[in-house]
Amino acid sequence: MESFECDVVVVGAGLSGLTAAYYLSKKDRGLRVVVLEAKDRIGGRTLTRQLSAADGTKDFFDIGGEWVGRPQPHMHYLLQKFGVNAFNPRTPPQNNEDNLKRNETSWQTRLDLHQLIWKVKSLTKKILSEGVKNSPIALECDALLLSSYMEENLWTQEAKKVVDAACKCMFSLAPSEMSLLYFLMYVKEAGGLDTFLHPEEYTGGECRVKGGVQQLCHHLLQKIGKNFVYLKQPVTDIIQSIEGARVVTGNQMQLLCQRVIMAIPPHHAAGISYQPPMPQTRRGLLQSVPLAFLVKFVITYDEAFWSQKNGKRQYGFQAILSNAGSPVGVVYDATSGRGNPALAGFVSSSVGDDSDPKNRKGVILKLIERHLGPDCYRLLEFSQLDWSQEPYNGGCFLKAIMPGTSSYFNNELREPFDRIHFAGTETATVWCGYMNGAIQSGFRAATEVLYHLRPLIVSSPYPDSLCLEKDRTLKKKNGNKDQPYSKWLFWGLGCVGLLSAVYLITKSSRFSEGGNMTHPSTFVKNIRLVFEAPNFVN
Ligand SMILES: Cc1cc2nc3c(=O)[nH]c(=O)nc-3n(C[C@H](O)[C@H](O)[C@H](O)COP(=O)(O)OP(=O)(O)OC[C@H]3O[C@@H](n4cnc5c(N)ncnc54)[C@H](O)[C@@H]3O)c2cc1C
């Protein structure tokens, strides 16, 4: 067995682990930091693939994390740091009828959804950011499934279907698979229902990253130094003693260090053997985070045929391909930053389990055909990834917590276990489950470690301004106003958030009547770079 000594071992080379390692070595070049990654690649739940594109090249498309927005300061920080552009090709069309089946929804359903939103908003206000379990409504909401709450508070079947489908798109889980408290906490941490739901400016679903998100991981890798990141090294054992910690991998590597940062999903952290053993409640918490089923697909085309459906333009196309029960949750325009047309979407929740992976491409295309016609078969390349089968990731987007366990979340998930510190998006205090949360948790865990190893550099275990909530939003000048219920509906039907995402093509005059959004050069002139604001963190 190979044996090395270092100061800090970071387990996991996703956004979170790489950010932690980067921050440690930035703060003190003398610190010996080693990253151990189980897979043969870095990036974790970010993965950018090169696919055949309309302009004859291989263009970049995200098959993992994709959407970012200005209310996400930690993501903003990294994008700026590495000079990576995020683009917002959307100008919300004034007339959206073609995009979504908004008009097919009855006024009763809209009213029903509206009153639910109002109730959720007032409940969210009662959740304390610091210490969820101390919130006045914590116990009550922890005992309830989101689906039970919906049953009690929605009276139209159609509204229930809308929330069910939207939930699957956002969480990749059905409302019956998560507690109400978890749902409320998640919404709260994303800055409230409005920021969370509406894929508009100054929300988490605002932009995509030109050239793909995974490049951020490669930039971080360069800063850390390739020689300090070991691939194919799944950590299996961590033995702590008075002298330090011994980290052992399944590939015969052993590292002796002072501190460990676990930047891996909770259920994988639960799979590691700890000496002395981790307290049962803590391990139980890590294990109580079930896997979500999620397949993401990207299909590239020569032409954005969906923009011309029924002779009408369809900017920012997105759709839920069927009602709850469909194996496909959402499909949206994923035209690249270079203007190469593509569709992307998700097969989400347990209904996806029913479709045979081998036939999935056919099933997906058939469903798209129903909405967009047979042109969908004239594709350049089809790419899919079943994240529930991806080794060392498990289900995605995130893990939900079942009733009875939410009260542990989040404080307990991120509390250090002697020399072991916990990062990973699930431990974030802002944008938990998102890429921003991954980055924030990396900064936070690194700060904790610096406090112990370099008290002269960091005098408090609490993160500096880079990680504080008050820096969370790069605010819109007038603030986010309450959105009318039609916006919620817009979201509900076409789906949203960050994860499902709306995709938009500007409706500038260049694209008006008779224009063709598919020409790459025209498109590129119309995309807007939105992360151009001056640095707001040092
Ligand atoms: C399809 C999809 C779409 C998404 N869309 C969005 C989006 O639009 N916007 C957004 O903000 N977020 C999105 N997300 C979520 C986002 O990608 C994640 O929140 C984020 O990337 C998580 O980063 P992380 O570093 O915390 O964890 P991970 O990326 O999971 O990194 C953990 C790493 O640890 C490694 N590992 C695990 N176990 C071990 C072990 N025992 N030893 C060593 N290494 C180990 C894994 O291989 C992995 O590389 C999406 C996710 C998916 C899957």
Automatic annotation (TrEMBL):
Pfam families: Amino_oxidase (PF01593). It catalyses: a secondary aliphatic amine + O2 + H2O = a primary amine + an aldehyde + H2O2. The keyword Transferase does not apply. Residues 15-450 form the Amine oxidase domain. Its EC number is 1.4.3.-. Substrate binds at F346. It is found in: Mitochondrion outer membrane. GO terms for cellular component: mitochondrial outer membrane. It is a single-pass type IV membrane protein. InterPro entries: Amino_oxidase, FAD/NAD-bd_sf, Flavin_amine_oxidase, Flavin_MAO. The keyword Nucleotide-binding does not apply. FAD binds at S16, E37, A38, V235, E426. One of its GO terms (molecular function) is monoamine oxidase activity. Gene3D superfamilies: 3.90.660.10, FAD/NAD(P)-binding domain, Guanine Nucleotide Dissociation Inhibitor, domain 1. It comes from the Eukaryota. Keywords: FAD, Flavoprotein, Oxidoreductase. Its main location: mitochondrion. It is an enzyme of class 1 (oxidoreductase). Belongs to the flavin monoamine oxidase family. This is Amine oxidase.
